[in-house]
Specification:
This protein is mostly helical. Helix content is about 80%, strand content about 0%. It is built from 21 helices and no strands.
């Protein structure tokens, strides 16, 4: 049992590093806009910054195929190890990048290359850890165990938020143009911890029981299993991607640039929201293990749909407490939805296709809609001049997910053979 906990820890350190990096990019988007995409129009600079953010997501489907193949045909642990290394190196290198003022057009080009490398590797880390933990956990406590995947992931956000906020405060005394590098360079510490813990990773019993005949080609698996499950998981992943990136990544830029809240206060609001969600996700996991996957997802969809416009309206007023309470209300339903969705993502596919099926569905959804969510939100506001316009995008995704959940089979009592 003790070794199992160590294995879960080792599998999820990569999630902490992954989301530490992605939150840093989201938090420092205003700084990147100035240093790497300078323009007389601040909104246009932000759009270019989020376009570079999106390219890392756009290659994630390719990463899903690559790491899905390794995870299903070679080894779950080898896929996780490779993904971890390929996340860590570009993250550290981000802190060494010269700016546009120093090397011109090569600065944004190098930035985009690093985002592409990160996007490929991230595709295998998160879904790989979800699959790994799901196969280790008892079926009666699977959602509760997967809640710890979210705790590690959100811990990366919390760590990134804390380090970013501290950097901003230090930057006021020194130069924010240089201080922003420090959080990326500090990722070396997480890399060292992750490499040390790798020795506790062992393939699950379910994976070891697979025969050579089970390991069929991608097309054969799709033909046998059908596109239905993958398509449904893709639609459900879209809502998770959009809510996560709009409410926990883009919210910093929204509160600062649109609502006029100071950057340090915007970061504090975001950090408090993540603390709040971290406290709730184990309870959401227990709830899902008791009532199933579909009820929490349906409740989450309804809550997100109903609250979208009021939350963006109050966030746009520029008041600290209004913004904080608004975000706290809506991330409650986001967390409820995402814990159940993450669990069903691993349960819906058979063992020999689990890593690939989960990676493809999740990463296509996140690749096409998650990474582009801040870009789309910024563009909608820029074109419509309505500060609550992103709410319409969120509502459309919630409605599509609600309809899809109704058609998905319940999986919470399934054994992962």
């Amino acid at each position: 049992m003790k070794h199992k906990y160590k294995s879960i820890f080792a599998a999820n350190v990569g999630n902490t590093l992954e989301w530490y990096d992605f939150c840093l990019y989201g938090y420092f988007a205003p700084v990147f806009a100035t240093l790497f995409f300078p323009s007389h129009n601040r909104s246009f600079s932000l759009i270019l910054t989020y376009a570079s953010f999106a390219v890392g997501f756009l290659v994630r489907p390719l990463g899903g195929i690559l790491f899905g193949y390794i995870g299903d045909h070679v080894s779950r642990t080898k896929a996780l190890n490779l993904a971890f290394v390929l996340i860590a190196i570009p993250t550290f290198c981000m802190g060494l990048l010269p700016t546009y003022q120093q090397i011109g057009i090569w600065a944004p080009i190098l930035l985009i290359v690093l985002r592409l490398l990160q996007g490929l590797s991230v595709a295998g880390q998160y879904t790989g850890s979800v699959v790994y933990v799901a196969e280790l956990a008892h079926e009666k406590h699977r959602a509760f165990a997967i809640a710890f995947v979210w705790l590690f992931m959100n811990s990366g956000f919390l760590l990134g938020s804390f380090v970013s906020s501290a950097s901003v405060h230090i930057g006021h005394a020194y130069h924010i143009d240089q201080i922003w590098r420090l959080p990326f360079l500090l990722s070396a510490v997480l890399f060292a911890i992750g490499m040390f813990s790798r020795r506790y990773l062992n393939d699950s019993v379910a994976f070891k029981r697979m025969t050579h005949r089970d390991r069929k080609s991608l097309w054969q698996n799709f033909r046998k299993i059908g596109f239905s499950s993958s398509t449904k998981m893709l639609i459900l992943a879209i809502l998770g991607a959009v809510t996560f990136n709009l409410l926990l990544v883009y919210s910093i830029t929204y509160l600062h640039h649109i609502a006029g809240i100071p950057l340090a206060d915007a970061m504090l609001i975001n950090m408090l929201c993540i603390f709040y969600v971290n406290a709730l996700v184990p309870l959401f996991g227990l709830f899902s293990d008791r009532v199933g996957r579909k009820p929490p997802m349906l409740i989450g969809c309804v809550g997100l749909f109903v609250l979208a416009i009021p939350v963006y309206y109050f966030m746009g007023q520029g008041h600290f407490w209004l913004a904080l309470l608004s975000l706290l209300s809506i991330v409650t339903f986001q967390g409820l939805y995402l814990i159940a969705f993450t669990t069903i993502l691993a349960e819906i596919f058979p063992t020999h296709f689990r890593y690939t099926g989960a990676s493809l569905s999740y990463n296509i959804g996140y690749g096409l809609f998650g990474g582009t969510a801040p870009l789309i939100a910024t563009s909608i506001i820029y074109l419509t001049h309505q500060h609550f316009a992103p709410a319409y995008y969120l509502m459309a995704c919630a409605l599509a997910a609600f309809i899809t959940v109704l058609t998905v089979r319940e999986t919470y009592q399934d054994k992962l053979h």
